[in-house]
């Protein structure tokens, strides 16, 4: 059985904007990692990381899962939105 989920990752055209919005909404510090053109932002809330990656058509096409959860063993579970 799945226990606690540690992280949720969403792909977005603007990780900076998404991260800033959630940071303000949740009252959490915004963290940033920039590597060349790749930007990753995240907020930690009660031991859970909410991360925002650049939308990448090759690795995460639009008809793929817009949000993913990784379990403790590195298994990625996709969550489809409405």
Provide a descriptive summary of the structure in words.
The protein has one domain. It contains one helix and six strands, in the order βαβββββ. With 82 residues, the chain is mainly beta. It starts with 6 loop residues before the first strand and ends with a strand. It has one helix at 15-26; strands at 7-12, 30-35, 38-45, 48-54, 67-70, 76-79. The chain has a six-stranded mixed sheet with strand order 2-3-4-1-5-6, with helices on one face. It is 15% helix and 43% strand. The mean pLDDT is 78. 13% of the residues are buried.
Number of strands: 6
Structural class: mainly beta
Q: Please trace the helix and strand order, writing H or E for each element.
A: EHEEEEE
Helix count equals 1
Work out the radius of gyration.
Answer: 13 Å
**Cα distance spanning the termini:** 26 Å
Strand order of the largest sheet: 2-3-4-1-5-6
Largest sheet: 6 strands, mixed
How many separate structural domains? 1
Low-pLDDT runs: none
Quaternary organization: single chain
Strand content: 35-45%
3D shape = globular
Give the fraction of residues assigned to helices: 10-25%
Average pLDDT: 78
